[in-house]
Amino acid sequence: MYECNQQTVTIQALQRMPYYVQQLRIMQENMVQTVSAPRIAELLNLNEVQVRKDFAAVYTTKGKPKTGFLVAELLHNMEELLGYYNINEAVIIGSGYLAQAIISDERLKGLGLRIVAAFDFSLDETEKEIHGIKVLSLDKISNLCRRMNIHIGIIADSGFQAQVVCDQLVAGGIISIWNFTEAHLSVPEYVKVKDENFTASYAVLTNHLKKNL
Amino acid sequence: MYECNQQTVTIQALQRMPYYVQQLRIMQENMVQTVSAPRIAELLNLNEVQVRKDFAAVYTTKGKPKTGFLVAELLHNMEELLGYYNINEAVIIGSGYLAQAIISDERLKGLGLRIVAAFDFSLDETEKEIHGIKVLSLDKISNLCRRMNIHIGIIADSGFQAQVVCDQLVAGGIISIWNFTEAHLSVPEYVKVKDENFTASYAVLTNHLKKNL
Q1: Mean pLDDT, range A7-21, rounded to an integer
Q2: Per-residue pLDDT tens for B72-103?
């Protein structure tokens, strides 16, 4: 396939792909056959050179770039690169609003995310369920992940000691961690942490206010 | 104050600040007086030169960098830059799990975020409230924002037409938009959009699995 190209895709490019995918799908629905990098750059307000580079990194069809990219082909390449539609099982730490927002997110479900268990403080002996998913006590994290061969862990509650929870995930064989807490997690090199720091995002918003009000 | 320095702080640096703040607070609690950039770089697993540059951009005290940065001063500079503890009123679009997660987020509250109203489809005539915040119908967005002089809008539900909602926010005087939908929003130049694209983040996680399993 496009193994060699795939190596050259940066995290930044990867994060732009879902936006391209969205535009390409609209084009496909409207029977558009080919598209140019400048057109997509214009629609998404991105740099033309950057878009061309991103497209070239994933596009498998060899040919003259001047005739434009085939929409169907480009879309397929990107979806494959993104690993869309492969089922990926995950566990989630937390059972509050944020955890429930992620568990019930239809977009993520549509992309293949299957959350198989949630973990929280065990408040009592009664079994709890959210959206059909069992909520288990925190001490069961590593055992369950190992037993079920899970590789994605989502830390969706800042009420826990994030590093402790993270260590349990790593011990259980998790190699991709989605971290919604403010904590800077320390992990082995083979583990990828994707931080979602609301506090840092909020700083961007308030800084813009400070400069412009 | 440090107006001229502030101009040089990039979005990337700004987003690293909350991590510095967290470390500096721990040091302050432990009576540490001065700190070096390499020490913080080591703790946060960041590049030393980058940390030194970030510190220099916010630090107001003139002096010899070789003696290290004063923890209290550096912390104060960063907190002020981040606009922490200034009350900022905001509206939120959506009243589902994600909206509730944001409304009830204690970290954001602690930083001064005050959400004054939520907006959703008006399902019936009865007034709805979530966490003590009124849920109003979507057509009231621009009027309320203008009337209450609100400048931050949070789009926390992908069930709406994000661009339409965004236009209403801009029309109501919003200049900072926190966008949790996948949509690429088109806004005037003076408006800052901070995207929180869960789909794009998920792509980073699954791509890591693909490469490492």
Answers
A1: 85
A2: 999 999 988 887 778 999 999 999 999 999 99
How remote is the C-alpha of B38 from its chain's centroid? 26
A30 touches chain B (CB under 8 A): no
Distance CA B175, CA B189 (A): 10
Q: Which residues does chain A have within 8 Å of residue B194's beta carbon, measured at their own beta carbons?
A: 201, 204-205
Judged by a CB distance cut-off of 8 A, whether residue B102 touches chain A is yes
**DSSP secondary structure, B25-48, as one string:** HHHHHTT--EE-HHHHHHHHT--H
ipTM over 0.90 threshold: no
Residue A148 burial (CB count, 10 A): 14
Q: Is A75 part of the contact surface with chain B (CB cutoff 8 Å)?
A: no
Answer for the pair A201, A184: CB distance below 8 angstroms, yes or no. Answer: no
B7 in helix, strand or coil? Answer: helix
Residues of B in contact with A104 (CB under 8 A): 97
Burial class (CB in 10 A: 0-12, 13-18, 19+), A150: buried
Q: List the domains of chain B with CATH numbers.
A: 3-81 (1.10.10.10), 88-200 (3.40.50.720)
**Closest in A17, A97, A199 to B18, CB measured:** A199
Tokens at A134, concatenated: 């069992």
Question: What is the radius of gyration, based on Cα positions, of chain A?
Answer: 20
- In this complex, which of A44, A88, A101 lies closest to B96 when CB atoms are compared? A101
